[in-house]
Amino acid sequence: MRDTSLSWQKKLAQGFASVNELLTFLELPLSIGNLHAEKQFPSRVPIGFAKRMQKGNPRDPLLLQVLATADELLASKDYRVDPLEEHDNTPIRGLLHKYHGRVLLTLTGVCAVNCRYCFRRHFPYQDNNPGRNGYQAICKYISQDNSISEVILSGGDPLLASDVLLTELINQLEEIPHLHTLRIHTRIPIVFPERIDKGLLSILKNTRFKKVIVLHCNHTQELDDSVREVLHELQQVGCYLLNQAVLLAGINADARILADLSHTLFAYGVLPYYLHQLDKVKGASHFDLPFDTVQSIYKQLQNLLPGYLLPRLVCEEPGKLSKTLLI
């Protein structure tokens, strides 16, 4: 059961904000972290997520996703600050319009956990923050394009926005008659389930929109009873739950690990959706895998899973009008 004695904001503030704090908690040598990497991209790890890590294990698959290391400082010409060229698809602050029929709002620049492979680790959130008044301009843009039927809330993590902001924004969007789907891309139910409180559930329950929540879980170890509980609550208020994972060297680059993830997600009421090849963002090259290795892992995964549990292997390419299917 979740502890409801403190607000989710206070619980979030209790998390680890430095690599040294995290390593001390996990009884690991400070030497495996790197403060220079942390200056480029800060550390942020909720306590509950850290408790799912194995103490004394420097190769723990959850730790490796959040551990600032010297590998992030390696220069690589193929890895860029804006690997998806999102700046070119931002017609108005806070809004990305790349794909037909849907737009994406970068609702906040804050995450509960800073994943070291994040493709937006260099994203200029301050320059793209529309402010509360700016959402009127966003809604006007959407209302003038009848082809847009879906709004995607992203970030950062959109579920770290306040209930007041979420309510105001959703109410404005509901006034646009050609919108029918609200999609939320979030890691919150996985890494910080305390945020899924009665207030947020009420907001989701009472909207007229079809609600799709795309989770981000890379390894079965991320899933525990607290996660199962909030996923059930999200289903109870009418949310469809999907998952996208990123294929990461040293973490989940194994067909049996990925098959176990798909089966466990399904047991939790979540359908596997995408398996992403790593976006080539500066600082994350050590997570990448050669394409022939990616293909081999996926073909093995095809042999282990029924079709409905097989996530689609994709990558995202700048300028393309959809995800690129790799197999």
Short synopsis of the structure:
33% of the residues lie in helices and 14% in strands.
SSE topology:
Blueprint: H1 8-13, H2 19-25, H3 35-40, H4 47-50, H5 63-66, E1 95-96, E2 102-106, H6 125-128, H7 131-143, E3 150-154, H8 163-174, E4 181-186, H9 188-191, H10 198-206, E5 210-216, H11 225-236, E6 239-246, H12 255-267, E7 271-276, H13 291-304, E8 312-315, E9 324-325
Parallel strand pairs: 2-3, 3-4, 4-5, 5-6, 6-7, 7-8
Antiparallel strand pairs: 1-2, 8-9
Helix pairs in contact: 7-8, 12-13
Keywords, please?
327 residues; alpha/beta; TIM Barrel; 2 domains; 9-stranded mixed β-sheet; 4Fe-4S
Plain-language structure description:
The protein has about 325 residues and is an alpha/beta fold. It has helices at about 10-15, 20-25, 35-40, 45-50, 65, 125-130, 130-145, 165-175, 190, 200-205, 225-235, 255-265, 290-305, and strands at about 95, 100-105, 150-155, 180-185, 210-215, 240-245, 270-275, 310-315, 325. It has 13 helices and nine strands. The longest helix has 14 residues, at about 290-305. The chain is globular, with a radius of gyration of 19 Å. The N and C termini lie far apart (about 40 Å).
Radius of gyration: 19 Å
Which CATH class of the largest domain applies here?
Answer: Alpha Beta
Lateral strand order in the biggest sheet: 1-2-3-4-5-6-7-8-9
Shape: globular
> What is the average of the pLDDT values?
94
Strand content: 5-15%
Query: Which class best fits the helix and strand makeup?
Result: alpha/beta
Corresponding CATH architecture of the largest domain: Alpha-Beta Barrel
Main sheet summary: 9 strands, mixed
GO molecular function, one term: 4 iron, 4 sulfur cluster binding
InterPro entries: Aldolase_TIM, EpmB, Lys_aminomutase/Glu_NH3_mut, rSAM, rSAM_sf
Pfam family, one: Fer4_12
Protein name: L-lysine 2,3-aminomutase
